[in-house]
Every structure is written in structure tokens, then in C-alpha cells.
């Protein structure tokens, strides 16, 4: 599994927040995507991430070679490993593709 975890320390609030970037080989844990695009136009990090960033409901996203899915929950509560999955999963605030 390829993944990176970034830790942000908010200076104003002093809260620590971890985001997960690039979880491979998995699916959601049951909270289904509320947005789906299957025409290939959003099937890469930049496009799917931008779609997520433009939607305040989006907390995480996933894509494969032809699909982009947006989720209303972060990965730490809605990701399960499965070795035959083609999807890469990211929390909303991942700055770059890993």
C-alpha cells in the first residue's frame, strides 16, 4: 500500500490534523460516494482533487483510470484495504499526488 500522511499544526487553534494521501488498493467502508463521474474527464489527481475542493461537502475523494468519486467523510473513517482495487484515495487537503 502506498500512502503518505501529512500532519498540519494549526497555529491559531493549536489543533493537530492528519490527512492521508494516496491510499491504494481499497474501497469505501460503506459510506458510498455522493458524487460519481465515470466519463474519464475527472479521472486523475488534479481534476478529481479540484472537483472535491470546489464542493464544501467533500472530505475525501478517489479515482481510477475512468472514474472520480467524492465522499462526505475523511479516509480514516471510510477506507478499507482490498488488494484488487484500482482506486487511489485521498483526503480533501492533500496538496499533491503521491
UniProtKB/TrEMBL annotation:
InterPro entries: Pan_app (IPR003609). Residues 21-94 form the Apple domain. This is Putative hydrophobin-like protein. It comes from the Eukaryota. It comes from Diaporthe ampelina.
